[in-house]
Amino acid sequence: MNKGVFGYPLMKIGIIGGGQLGKMLSQKAKQMGFYVISLDPSAACPAASVSDELIVSDFYSPEKLKELVEKSDITTYEIEHINTSVLKELYDEGYNILPSPYCLEIIQDKLKQKQVLQSAGLPVPRFERVESFDISFFENFGFPLVQKATKGGYDGRGVVVLKSKDDINKVLKTESYIEEFVDVEKELAVIVARNKKGDVVSYPVVEMVFDETANILDILIVPARVEKDIEDEAKKIAIKAVEALQGVGVFGVELFLTKDRKILINEIAPRPHNSGHYTIEACITSQFEQHLRAICDLPLGSTKLLSPAVMINLLGDDGYKGTPVIEGLIDALSIEGVSFHFYGKKVTAPFRKMGHVTILDDNLERAIEKAKKVKEVLKIKSEV
User: Fold this and answer.
1) Binding-site positions
2) Residue 42: per-residue pLDDT
3) Which residues, in sequence order, are bridge partners of residue 353?
4) pLDDT digits (tens, 9 = 90+) for 113-172
5) Binding residue numbers for ATP
6) What span, in angstroms and rounded, lies between the C-alpha atoms of 178 and 137?
7) Which domains does the chain have, with CATH numbers?
8) What is the pTM of this model?
9) What distance in Å separates the CA atoms of residue 182 and residue 148, rounded to the nearest whole number?
């Protein structure tokens, strides 16, 4: 086929995971003319409504993963907790799986991820593998500290803060590592995209504020309210981190800006990321389109920010579980610049990610005020 000439569909894209990221990736893929095959344990997953095919399976079934990969021209994923051993075998046989399962295997193990980044000369918090659960081990490292499970943790799970030896009862009795408790001024993030040729682009630096109760991203502000030199350094570090992992696709790089103005890498996600949802409305190329461009070896798109933006996650209200009920939607949509995204999950639960709202405004502070109003009126509850 001549370069630049495609049939319809353009390609068959296999996506492991049918959650909200899979849904938004599928929506963009369908808009662009791709055929989408999703794999998820639930037949009613968010991506089911926008996929051409759905394979119902857990993320570790060798047979079903092989079926997905063999049916697809390119396979990708929207979740990290999947079977890398079978994917590595298929990748070695020549199947297109991007980001590479070898890259994913590093990222799945948070300790290995830290070691690779450190070996590449990138700034990370001081860390050490947990060799003993005895109090003396933690005392020798120095309190306060953070203990993190090497595998399986996300959205605050598998992470504990130990402020002193009095917190020893909180210790995770699992394979883990400890790192210094960083005195953080702001938490930042950068979405980076890289293709197989090594072309790389980064999106604007964003500022993240977390819900302390659920330890989930609560409000995201873009552009981040930091100095130009901090912004430039954050982008440079994020790009180098993805290059160190030889990543292909879109990556969410989470960073700490310390009180003494240093930037440290917190962790990296090998997929579109919660911190990049604002790109759907606020950038020329959304993170979802960019991911498709990167893995399909298409030219990378412009990351230009069209407008300052604020994004808030819509979490299930505490005390509610069941069929979701959306309260305050009319009031929220009456605010100029609001875009509402509901993920289509059939059941809400306390602090479950049910959707998000992006607010665009030429004035960033005004966008923040509008976001606060949306948070006041827009609630996800459940049927009684």
Assistant:
1) 110, 148, 179-182, 187, 266-267
2) 97
3) 315
4) 999 999 999 999 999 999 999 999 999 999 999 999 998 766 567 899 999 999 989 999
5) 110, 148, 179-182, 187, 266-267
6) 10
7) 12-97 (3.40.50.20), 126-180 (3.30.1490.20), 184-382 (3.30.470.20)
8) 0.95
9) 14
